[in-house]
Amino acid sequence: MSGSSVSYRDRIYIIKDIILKLVERGELNQTALLSFCGLNLKKHKPILDDLESNGMISRTEESLGKRIITIYRPTQKGIEFCRNILEPYENMFPRRKNIDENASKMSFLILI
Predict the structure, then answer these.
(1) Residue 61: in which H helix or E strand, if any?
(2) Share above pLDDT 90 across residues of the chain, in percent, rounded to a whole number
(3) Residue 1: predicted pLDDT
(4) Residue whose C-alpha is closest to residue 62's, from 15, 26, 28
(5) Cβ(7)–Cβ(100) under 8 Å?
(6) What is 11-94's CATH number, 1.20.1560.10, 3.40.50.880, 3.30.230.10, 1.10.10.10?
(7) Is the pTM of this model over 0.70?
(8) Residue 106 has what pLDDT?
């Protein structure tokens, strides 16, 4: 990959980033969540669907005029999964610095 600015993130780190961003913000609409996490809806929607079906995040739809807004929130199960599984995993296998410095700087904020 010479000269390419495209970076690859393992699925596990994408999952952690999604849950952490939701914990940090409380709730986010789908567009904001994907934007904050640097994700693409078409490519990463299955990850959101998996997280929801496994009870890690919740999704609600709200009407705004003729538009439907999808809102995501973290669940307690997702917070505990992040704290007990994902955080120790990243401590054991840290991300490479050139991949995503912001995510590795996000120390786990969940001391709830």
Answers:
(1) strand 57-64
(2) 66
(3) 41
(4) 28
(5) yes
(6) 1.10.10.10
(7) yes
(8) 47
